[in-house]
Write a structure and sequence with these properties.
The chain is α+β, with helices and mostly antiparallel strands. It folds into two domains: 46-122, no CATH class; 134-211. It is built from two helices and 13 strands. It is elongated, with a radius of gyration of 28 Å.
């Protein structure tokens, strides 16, 4: 009877110990102490910053060239000089926050930042919120749009119930692009309507499609 009582006590003790471990907010070290959790933000790489900035400048006819890592305020930034299509260097520089990836105009002499909207090549229409959702019609052809994420959408172009082309277009503001081995299409919202242009005039999809009211 004593052995049975002892066994039950051991089981209860083990259960209590397991419960206490499961409820611990921090992992234990080898000496029984609590291990500190490192909550230091992870910085993006320069390569990632290059890609973010290239995407931001896409279509603006300028190119960014990495200069150095700089500190402004309490944050670090990858800084870039900028050249135009004639390879002339602009007075303004750009900076990418190493934590958030946000892009700023950088003033190196003052080590200060300004919003990207102060950049001389800034295109306000690219930051405009546009709905890439709905159905549009032209000459018996229908274009259906469905958002995929904040910068892209799925589309389907059909005629007489038959799909002619489907894919994913991406862009900023009122314009988005789609390219494959055969077509190069630009989608542009114009008011409630949708304009499609084809750089090679190969698709037959070009035109202004009117929104389809349900």
């Amino acid at each position: 009877m004593k052995k049975k009582t002892l066994l039950i006590s051991l089981i209860l003790s083990m259960c209590a110990a397991l419960y206490a471990c499961a409820g611990s907010s921090a992992p234990a070290t080898a000496d029984g102490g609590e291990q500190e959790i490192d909550d230091t933000p992870v910085e993006i790489s320069q390569k990632d910053a290059d890609s973010l900035l290239a995407e931001k400048l896409d279509g603006l006819k300028v190119k960014a060239i990495f200069d150095s890592m700089e500190t402004a305020g309490e944050d670090n930034y990858y800084t870039y000089s900028v050249v135009d299509s004639d390879n002339n260097e602009l007075e303004q520089r750009l900076a990418v926050n190493t934590i958030s990836g946000e892009v700023f105009v950088y003033l190196p002499n003052e080590k200060k930042l300004q919003g990207f909207e102060t950049f001389s090549y800034y295109d306000e229409s690219r930051d405009e919120e546009v709905s890439w959702e709905g159905s549009f019609e032209l000459g018996g052809r229908t274009v259906s749009l469905e958002p995929a994420d904040t910068t892209s959408f799925e589309f389907e172009i059909s005629k007489n119930g038959k799909t002619e082309l489907a894919g994913v277009a991406s862009g900023e503001g009122r314009k988005a692009r789609y390219e494959d081995d055969k077509y190069s299409l630009t989608f542009e919202r114009k008011g409630d309507n949708l304009e499609i242009t084809d750089s090679g005039n190969m698709s037959g999809f070009a035109g202004i499609y009117e929104i389809k009211n349900n």
